[in-house]
């Protein structure tokens, strides 16, 4: 097998087949091993609801373990192993995620190889679903359609999250990233056991497949996967997916202001910022910029909008690195909309024109470095980090990422700030 990534020993890659990659993250920090399978496919309105439904159906039972009850029993027999699955929107991809966490073999009696069992069970759930008459089991599909419907409907219950999603939707209207990751109720009506299984087969044959195993592992893991019948049955493919973090051209456009009305006690203000003509190296500057703007308790938004002016209950910002956006979020009194908006705009102007002190920049960098250095303390976080690198077509390890943050200088932040403009202002009020 072709091996890649040996220069980055933290994430050791093996190409199992074209479009199917094994990632081994060897660590003795944990008492558990974590196995994960990620299926990546481009976001489309046609398939996003089906994609959200697939993991929910797969978790109900496989060809060998036919019910959720049986899956639970198997996991219990594996000394309380845990299984989880879900869906994420990563760049312009919908990613189906499956996890199985089990005790490290070192802590298992009778010389049992729990990691082998974990791989076997997870591969069976993902790649060998329960099929009845050449389609998914109808009972499972109908039940999970109802569950997914409730998830989609619940989008509106958390008003802060709803406002965030609506802002993204407006920023990326008629573009893949504007789609809701769980899909749409109106599309559920046209999904049945047969066409969902057809979609699943297409997905498995075309998607990018990444298999991660994290823990105190050895050569046996790779051998076990290479010998696994589920993996052997997978066809090589030129995987169809969207490379993230590429520099999308941001159009020059006027600020788009949207005001929606719902029953809310507090106004939800979300401002989407575009970062234009940014280089890969400058993205590290943007990370520091975001901390200074609204990513900490010492940031401009927190100190000036929330603390000094008392115009917001919450005021923060986050950086969408894969899409070259910064999103500002604030909870405000409805009558304070104009005042809060104008003060936030003042902070953005100030970021362009003010000279940053070396110490405040250093403090912001240290906050990022502390967070990044903490990634290896969580198996899930470490897998997520290296999967992000994989989707971006990069191999920046954590140490190099930290070094790139250390290099950021105050003057560079001002230069980056000049490339940042408001795309959309979204306000949810009553």
Give descriptors for this structure.
14 strands, 5-stranded mixed sheet, 430 residues, 16 helices, Cytochrome Bc1 Complex, Chain A, domain 1, alpha+beta
Task: Give a structural overview.
- The protein is built from 16 helices and 14 strands.
- The protein is α+β, with helices and mostly antiparallel strands.
- It has 2 domains: 2-232, Metalloenzyme, LuxS/M16 peptidase-like (Cytochrome Bc1 Complex, Chain A, domain 1), CATH 3.30.830; 256-429, 2-Layer Sandwich (Cytochrome Bc1 Complex, Chain A, domain 1).
- The protein has a 7-stranded mixed sheet with strand order 1-2-3-9-4-6-5, with helices on both faces. A 5-stranded mixed sheet has the order 10-14-11-13-12, sandwiched between helices.
- Helix 3 runs parallel beside helix 8, helix 10 (282-294) crosses helix 16 and helix 13 (358-373) packs antiparallel against helix 15.
- The protein is globular and about 60 Å long.
Number of strands: 14
| CATH fold group of the largest domain | Cytochrome Bc1 Complex, Chain A, domain 1
Which sequence of SSEs, written as H and E, runs from N to C?
A: EEEEHHEEHEEHHHHEHHEEHHEEHHHHHE
Q: Can you count the helices?
A: 16
Radius of gyration: 23 Å
Strand order of the biggest β-sheet = 1-2-3-9-4-6-5
Beta-strand content bin: 15-25%
- CATH class of the largest domain, anyone? Alpha Beta
Largest sheet: 7 strands, mixed
Shape: globular
